[in-house]
Amino acid sequence: MTQATSALPLKFYLFGRQEVWRGSELLAPLVTQKIQSLLAYLLIYRHQSHPRQKLAALFWGDCDEVRAHHSLSTALWRIRKQFGDAFLLSDVGTVQLNPRTPFWLDVAEFEEQLGQAKTEKADIDLGVVAHLELCTFSLECAKISV
Q1: pLDDT reported for residue 48
Q2: Count of beta carbons in the 10 Å neighbourhood of residue 7
Q3: Measured distance CA(146)–CA(37) in Å, rounded
Q4: Angle formed by the axes of helices 52-60 and 65-83, nearest 10°
Q5: Which SS3 state, helix, strand or coil, does residue 15 take?
Q6: How far apart are CA 79 and CA 25, in angstroms?
Q7: Assessment of whether the complete model's pTM goes beyond 0.85
Q8: Using one digit for the tens of pLDDT, what is the confidence trace for 64-93?
Q9: Residues 138-146, mean pLDDT to the nearest whole number
Q10: Whole-angstrom Cα distance, residue 77 to residue 62?
Q11: In what order do the strands lie in the sheet with 103-105?
Q12: pLDDT tens-digit profile of 2-27?
């Protein structure tokens, strides 16, 4: 990744097929579905830090604790490799997205538009809203795809 391409904003699409774009380039998906699910989880819950122990148990609960933590570390390394070292903030106990990293997220856009519509009491197609809300990432969906 060159410095010029790393400066282009990232766009994350979680509705439908998960995709990541940098400028006009579609990036290759992360290596495994679990790592993609971890990334989606971190994006959805982007405003909070996450205990490593919780993430390891959530995504690698079928492994012993040592292997689960190793798998989490490897997954975080792969995310950093794809999106840059500054994309994540982490220490021995927690992980979170770096709030200073600029990116666009379709779910955040949806949340913002829905919030504006509710605030303005605008006429909205409730069928479309219901469909999109059903498509949002939830913990149960993550368990299915993990």
Answers
A1: 95
A2: 10
A3: 7
A4: 100
A5: coil
A6: 17
A7: no
A8: 999 999 999 999 999 999 999 999 999 999
A9: 47
A10: 21
A11: 25-26, 19-22, 10-13, 103-105
A12: 444 456 789 999 998 899 999 999 99
Residue the block writes with tokens 């971890």: 38
User: Other CB atoms closer than 10 Å to residue 129's CB: what's the count?
Assistant: 15
Query: Phi and psi of 41, rounded to 5°?
Result: -60, -45
Give the position of tokens 């990036």.
27
User: What letter represents residue 3's amino acid?
Assistant: Q
How long, in residues, is the chain?
Answer: 146
How far is the C-alpha of 138 from the C-alpha of 96, rounded, in Å?
18
Whole-angstrom CA distances from 140 to 41, 65, 92, 134, 136 are 11, 22, 27, 12, 11
Q: What is the 3-state secondary structure (H, E, C) of 65-130?
A: HHHHHHHHHHHHHHHHHHHCHHHEEECCCEEEECCCCCEEEHHHHHHHHHHHHHHHCCCCCHHHHH
Q: What is the CATH number of domain 3-145?
A: 1.10.10.10
